[in-house]
């Protein structure tokens, strides 16, 4: 009986150690716009960066992409899309919140003033925290606008700055995708950086049969580049439970 008890104790100890060492599965939700959204790969060459994000994590991280084209903080909240995310959040989930492109729009259903944009982001952050989830704010990706051989991105106005300031004041992680993507595009230059965005010839894309010269939306190389920036920042900031699951080639 004594030997049997010792054996059971040994087995229990081994099982406990194995379970304790087993990596925890983590979910990352994405709330954002068309630059992050997932697209049908059979219909278009357009890709969102969050669509490519799973390629930079191991099997213990699940990306739940809830980004939707044309949405701002205002319309994402008004349409109940944020509520859908909040209702799905569980303790220790991450949620990356990235808006700004459409908040800067003049369309009334999209436009959010600077104060409204700030209030909307605060609402999202606080509601995520109330579910014991872990919000991350991210600035919008740069809009590839060259003038006189220099990158000029004035269409996003003050929204990236507000995002940075808010992350600091709320003491939550910030991924400055605007700054990192801007640096990337500047280093690549005007012509080479076109391959990251939806600069395509006629006949390449069924959704845009006449081609396009789009400095906002991404093709696969651009989406992968932004996704790698996001993953690298997560690793650099050593974010709990996910930094050690980052895979950078």
TrEMBL record:
Secretion signal span: 1-20
CDD domains: Rhamnogalacturan_acetylesterase_like
Record GO terms (molecular function): hydrolase activity, acting on ester bonds
InterPro entries per record: RhgT-like (IPR037459), SGNH_hydro (IPR013830), SGNH_hydro_sf (IPR036514)
Top-rank lineage group of the source organism: Bacteria
Domain SGNH hydrolase-type esterase: 32-197
Pfam families to which the protein is assigned, alphabetical: Lipase_GDSL_2 (PF13472)
Alphabetized SUPFAM superfamilies for the sequence: SGNH hydrolase
Keyword Hydrolase included in the entry's annotation: yes
The entry's keywords: Hydrolase, Signal
Family to which the UniProt record says this protein belongs: Belongs to the 'GDSL' lipolytic enzyme family.
Name this protein carries in UniProt: SGNH hydrolase-type esterase domain-containing protein
Organism: Labilibaculum euxinus
């Amino acid at each position: 009986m004594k030997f049997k008890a010792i054996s059971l104790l040994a087995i229990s100890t081994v099982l406990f150690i194995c379970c304790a060492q087993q990596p925890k599965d983590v979910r990352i939700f994405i709330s954002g716009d068309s630059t992050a959204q997932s697209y049908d790969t059979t219909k278009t060459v357009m890709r969102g960066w969050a669509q490519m994000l799973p390629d930079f994590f191991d099997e213990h991280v699940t990306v739940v992409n809830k980004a939707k084209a044309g949405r701002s903080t205002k319309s994402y909240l008004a349409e109940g899309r944020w509520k859908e995310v909040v209702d799905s959040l569980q303790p220790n989930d991450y949620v990356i919140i990235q808006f700004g492109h459409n908040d800067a729009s003049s369309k009334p259903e999209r436009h959010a003033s600077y104060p409204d944009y700030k209030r909307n982001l605060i609402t999202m952050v606080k509601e995520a925290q109330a579910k014991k989830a872990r919000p991350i704010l991210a600035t919008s990706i740069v809009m590839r606008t060259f003038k006189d051989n220099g990158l000029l991105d004035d269409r996003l106005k003050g929204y990236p700055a507000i995002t940075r300031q808010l992350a600091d004041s709320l003491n939550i992680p910030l991924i400055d995708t605007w700054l990192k993507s801007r640096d990337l595009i500047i280093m690549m230059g005007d012509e080479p950086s076109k391959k990251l965005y939806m600069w395509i010839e006629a006949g390449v894309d069924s959704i845009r049969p006449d081609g396009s010269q789009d400095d906002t939306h991404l093709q696969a190389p651009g989406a992968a580049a932004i996704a790698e920036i996001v993953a690298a920042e997560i690793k650099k900031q050593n974010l709990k439970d996910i930094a050690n699951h980052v895979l950078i080639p």
